[in-house]
Design a protein that fits this description.
Number of helices: 2
Strand content: over 45%
Radius of gyration: 23 Å
Structural class: mainly beta
C-alpha cells in the first residue's frame, strides 16, 4: 500500500491518491511506501521504519527543505530508499546543517544496532549552508560505534545519479572544512556512482571545500572503525576555484576509485593518516581516472610529515593527468617525512602526465612503471619529470641526468626504450 502526499492535501485526509496527506511526516506515519507530489515541503523528515521507500512522483519537481532544522532527512532505519528529490537546508540548528544523514546511533559504550541497505538515487543537493558558523554537509553516513564495544557497522549505502551543488558556511568561521559527502567511522560498503560534484559558486577559497571525505572519525579518532569497502565510479568533480580536495581519504581501507574525472580543485585525490587515528590508510586503488587543471596535485599520498602515519598499498594506474599552469606541487606526488618509516608497497603504472613544470615527485617504497611525462622543464628535452626518490623501484625506465643538475629525470625517448 502507498500513502500519497500533495501540496493540495491535508493531514486529516486518508492518504489515498484522491485524498492525500499534506506533509511527508504524516505519510511516513501511515505507510512504509510514500509518494510525494510536486512542490516544496518545508519540514524535517525522519525515516525510522525499516523497509521505507520515499519517492517523488515527479522527480526534479519535489523539494524537501529542512530550513531551520539540523537535517532535511534523517535516516536511522535499514532497507530504505530515497528517490528523486531536491534536498535543501539553510541554517540548521546548533552547529550543523545536513541534507540527508544516515545515522547509526550508538550508546554510551559505543555499541550500535547497525543500519544497512540505504539507497539514495536521482537526488539534487542544493543550498546546504550554515550562515552562523559550524558544518554544512549535504550527505553523511555516520557509524560511530566501535567494533570492540559491540558496534555494528553502517553497511551497504548506495548513492547514485545524484548532483551536489555548493554548500557553504559563514565566512567568519573560515578554515572549517565543508564536505558534500562524508563517511565517518564504522562504515562498511559505500557505493557512489554516476554523481556530479560542483563547486561553481565559491566566494572564498578559505571555505575549504572537500567533495568527498572518508574518515576514521575526527571526533573519536582512536575509537571507531574506519570506512572500508568503498567504491567510487563514473563521477565528475568540477570546481571553478581551487578549493582543497575533491576526494580526501583518511584512515580508510579497500577504496576503489575508477572512471572518474577531477577538474579544477587544489588536489584531486589525497590519501593520508593523521597520527591520532587507530588505523592506517591502505589498499586504495585509483584507476582509469582523468585529472585536469588541478592547481596543486592531481594525486598526492604518503606520510605527509612526521606526525602522520605511513600509508600502505596505494595504487595509481591507467590515469591521465594534465594541467596548463605550474603549481607549487607536482601533479603526481608521493610524499614521505624525512624520518621514520615511509609508505609501503605503493605503485604507479601506465600513466600519462602533461605539465609545464615537474611532472611527478616520488619518495618512499614505490614501484613505478610505464610513466609517460610531457613537460617544459629543461632545454631540448621533451617529457621531463624529476624525482626526489628513496627506495624507489623503477621498472622499464632509463634514468638520465638533466643538463646542469644531478637530479634523475625521465624522458619520453627513455620511456620508449631509447
Amino acid at each position: 500500500m502507498i500513502a500519497y502526499v500533495s501540496k493540495s492535501g491535508s493531514d486529516s485526509n486518508y492518504g489515498t491518491q484522491e485524498s492525500p496527506f499534506l506533509t511527508i511526516g504524516r505519510g511516513l506515519r501511515s505507510k512504509n511506501t510514500v509518494s510525494v507530489g510536486p512542490g516544496t515541503y518545508t519540514e524535517s523528515v525522519t525515516i525510522s521504519n525499516n523497509g521505507t521507500t520515499l519517492f517523488a512522483s515527479s522527480p526534479g519537481q519535489t523539494v524537501i527543505d529542512g530550513t531551520g532544522n539540523t537535517h532535511a532527512v534523517l535516516i536511522n532505519a535499514s532497507h530504505v530508499k530515497l528517490l528523486g528529490f531536491e534536498i535543501n537546508n539553510v541554517g540548521g540548528l546548533g552547529t550543523r546543517s545536513r541534507g540527508v544523514s544516515v545515522w547509526n546511533t550508538y550508546d554510551v559504550n559505543g555499541a550500535t544496532p547497525g543500519i544497512q541497505d540505504i539507497t539514495v538515487h536521482n537526488c539534487v543537493f542544493r543550498n546546504i549552508s550554515r550562515p552562523l558558523g559550524g558544518y554544512a554537509t549535504p550527505f553523511s553516513v555516520l557509524g560511530y560505534g566501535d567494533v570492540a564495544a559491540g558496534g555494528t557497522a553502517t553497511r551497504n549505502t548506495t548513492l547514485s545519479y545524484c548532483e551536489f551543488h555548493q554548500s557553504k558556511i559563514n565566512w567568519i568561521s573560515e578554515g572549517i572544512n565543508t564536505s558534500y559527502v562524508i563517511a565517518t567511522g564504522n562504515v562498511s560498503g559505500f557505493d557512489i556512482s554516476y554523481c556530479t560534484f560542483l563547486a561553481t559558486d565559491v566566494e572564498d577559497v578559505a571555505d575549504r571545500i572537500v567533495a568527498i571525505s572518508l574518515s576514521g572519525g575526527y571526533f573519536y579518532p582512536a575509537g571507531p572503525s574506519r570506512p572500508r569497502n568503498v567504491r567510487l565510479s563514473n563521477c565528475q568533480f568540477v570546481s571553478t576555484v581551487p578549493t582543497l580536495y575533491a576526494l580526501y581519504i583518511q584512515a580508510s581501507t579497500n577504496v576503489d576509485v575508477y572512471d572518474c574525472v577531477f577538474s579544477g580543485w587544489n588536489y584531486g585525490i589525497g590519501a593520508f593518516t593523521e597520527s591520532t587515528f587507530k588505523h592506517k590508510c591502505r589498499d586504495v586503488w585509483i584507476r582509469r581516472c582523468e585529472f585536469y587543471d588541478n592547481a596543486d596535485s592531481a594525486v598526492i599520498f604518503g606520510r605527509f610529515n612526521n606526525v602522520y602515519q605511513p600509508v600502505e598499498n596505494i595504487s595509481v594506474t591507467d590515469c591521465v593527468i594534465a594541467r596548463t599552469t605550474q603549481g607549487t606541487i607536482p601533479p603526481l606526488c608521493v610524499v614521505n617525512a624525512s624520518s621514520g618509516v615511509g609508505s609501503l608497497d605503493c605503485s604507479i603504472s601506465n600513466c600519462t602526465i602533461k605539465s609545464p613544470g615537474v611532472c611527478a615527485s616520488v619518495s618512499g617504497n614505490v614501484d613505478v612503471s610505464d610513466l609517460l611525462c610531457y613537460s617544459d622543464v629543461g632545454s631540448g628535452v621533451q617529457g621531463v619529470g624529476s624525482f626526489a626518490y628513496n627506495d624507489v623501484d623503477f621498472d622499464r625506465h632509463k634514468l638520465v641526468a638533466l643538463r646542469g643538475t644531478s637530479a634523475p629525470v625521465w624522458t619520453k625517448d627513455a620511456l620508449r626504450g631509447g
